[in-house]
């Protein structure tokens, strides 16, 4: 391909960010090429499994109604595991779609969803090429002007990195270095097949459209991280995320810790009889706003989605797919508005502000400090479950005063009042 035959944009990666960018650009009449190294969009992508639908509606009104989604989330759960005990906080809202808007969020399986969204981009006129690996970038006069795939050179006004948390082309562009394992988690996940009726019975769902989302604490052997569980139409997505540096210091492997989670009484009762049909692992951005590279663009080059660090973890929810879609929309708007490649980057930053992506990242930054509290991952769940055991234990003895009992349990689990005050202070600053 000659430079004279160049595309308006080449997008590397056909996940939600890349597909959303391609969809928006193609709708505006731009010549767009999406390059995906997997055999099909979504074949190499992994997610816990949840999408907030406002992002699809911002991409195009009504898209959420036809998207390849699983169940609308009507039950929000947080589970604490301490030994064989468990505490589950269960918030149920059967509507979650007020004022005529679509349901707030759905569970998702990436393979069908990504293929569907990439297909919608193709319908708009984008070209999606799968099974191709980008090996390098073409640089001319200080700007990125295309990509190299094998022996082929393809040119574009703008190259968009949508190739995930460990973006190789962003490294080649000189915007990020080798991955910092203090800013990412390593996740493992299984998709466990179960009949729809069994899922509805175990999670107290009233119909096949309703679903549950659960964040799990106390399942990582004290390692910074946590678990997740999402109900799909006929399967359950169950997984754990760990800080990789801490895993290396433990005797148990990630697989062993994950197996312990599956066998925990509170979890096993939900997945019993199921068949594992998919096992996957992936890296997850954990630093939130602080994990965004100092520079996410250069002339002729933009970073979007996980490649740009657009992930939010509050402990009770994890957001990535919606932010990925927003960043793809923002990048596309900037490319359309730009009079030259040099204008695209600054316009992209403006669009990220206007679309509320960067404000969202900044607003949730304080959660990072809270989640760095080490005793949250082992001693706190043990304390909470032990306190509940004391609360509900009835025998012939005179019960201890509630406050005294809690203080005794705190002492037994090595948590001081000062530890709680410091955690509370971190929480107040959020």
Q: Measure the end-to-end span.
A: 51 Å
Share of residues in strands:
25-35%
Count of DSSP-assigned helices: 16
Report the structural category: alpha/beta
The coarse overall form would be: globular
The CATH topology of the largest domain is what? FAD/NAD(P)-binding domain
CATH architecture heading of the largest domain: 3-Layer(bba) Sandwich
The percent range for helix content is 25-40%
What's the assembly state of these chains? single chain
The CATH class of the largest domain is Alpha Beta
Biggest sheet features = 8 strands, mixed
* Poorly predicted regions: none
Structurally, how many domains make up the residues?
3
Mean pLDDT: 91
Tell me the radius of gyration: 23 Å
Would you mind describing this structure in some detail?
35% of the residues lie in helices and 27% in strands. With 430 residues, it is α/β, with parallel strands linked by helices. The longest helix is centred in the C-terminal third of the chain and has 17 residues. It is globular, with a radius of gyration of 23 Å.
What's this entry about, in short?
The protein is α/β, with parallel strands linked by helices. The protein contains 16 helices and 19 strands.
